[in-house]
Amino acid sequence: MALSILTTSLLLLSGTASANIQSQPPKQHVLPPLRSHVNDCLPGPVKHDLLPSCETAFVSNETLKSGQEKPWTHTPFCLDTKAGTPYCVFTASKFQGPKRGISIIAPLSNNASSSLAQIEKLILASPKAKDDFITVGEDLEDPPYALRTIDGKGFGLIATRKIPKGSIFMTDYATLMADKDFAANLRMEQGRLLLSEAVVRLPYPDRVLKLARSSTRPGDVPAAEDVMKTNSFSVEAGGHGYVALFPDVSVRVFCAITRFNAAALSKTITAFRDIFPGEEITISYTAFNLQSKIRLPRLKKLWGFDCSCNLCAGPPELLAASDARRQKVDDLGPEIVELVEEGKFDEAVKLNKEMIQALTEEEILPHMGDYYEIMGRLYQAWGKKKEAVEWFEKALDEVEGFKADGADDLKRIIKALKAEKKQA
């Protein structure tokens, strides 16, 4: 059975890094005053960047009162754009409980198949969270971590007991979502006003405004904009791209990986290795193959912090060895693909073992299941069924231990190979 070159390439070149991310101490801020925009509109042909036309405001009200069930608890606040499609703030202040809520910035649409319409259905169908802020497995009263101040880092999350590999120990829900193109489709003043309105309509705006900020000129950048740029994740919901803010994930620093659940508009935090008591919990912000000279400035520029993990803060020779391993993994991927194309599976297996060794030493991936599966497929294509089964079983152990996708496919492959061995 021929090995899929495309699948191999994608698997070989995928991966994430484990960088130590710390949030900054909360900055001072002033909450915008509460306002009502129901009657704040301009008549006839009069237009202004910061106010909707009365026609837009009317459409917004009719959208809310059309008889179709809507999750929104406020009249949508809309601004006209040059493109002709108003962008609006839609708020469901009771989403996931009285202390959460969600505000979404998206184009106004009455299309039942639009992304916004799909998100409306998700919000209406979403079950309530079990607690006011955070869901931690089944053990809500005794989470396996504590938020503490760490010298030189601000706030950090410290494990209070062992968190086993593969366990989901936190679930958080989106509080702010914005269409990925909204900044490009609006003037700066419009975007800032929509973000401010989206925050102030939430039950507890301070949950957002207290988060870390990365601007070097915080006095010149509104708090909501700075927080969104510093803490948001790219997600896809309703078939469309958004940037989303998860306050409980953002205010904490997580040896874990995050996953977005589009059906629940939630993000889960999973331990990709055993985390031990007293250990700081971290997440990855960069691709694993980035060299330190690129990775460190990028972290500073985009998220406003200097990485101080054991690797980045270690001696130069330690960082150089790490860069060499990451470069090796980056270089070996294409070489292995070329060898597979030439049918040189023995050489491909040898290089893939070197790659696995480098990845293991670097400890930068959530689990090694993908790379073990590649090894299994290499042996399978080489015609060595026994070795293939051994590597597929190793991949299955990793995938099941991490509760990742793909376990059923691996089980089918293993079963088929064992059946072929019996017939041989």
UniProtKB/TrEMBL annotation:
The keyword Signal applies. Keywords: Signal. It holds the Pfam family SET. SUPFAM superfamilies: SET domain, TPR-like. Residues 1-18 form the signal peptide. It comes from the Eukaryota. InterPro entries: SET_dom (IPR001214), SET_dom_sf (IPR046341), SET_domain_protein (IPR053185), TPR-like_helical_dom_sf (IPR011990). Transmembrane segments: none annotated. Residues 143-286 form the SET domain. This is SET domain-containing protein.
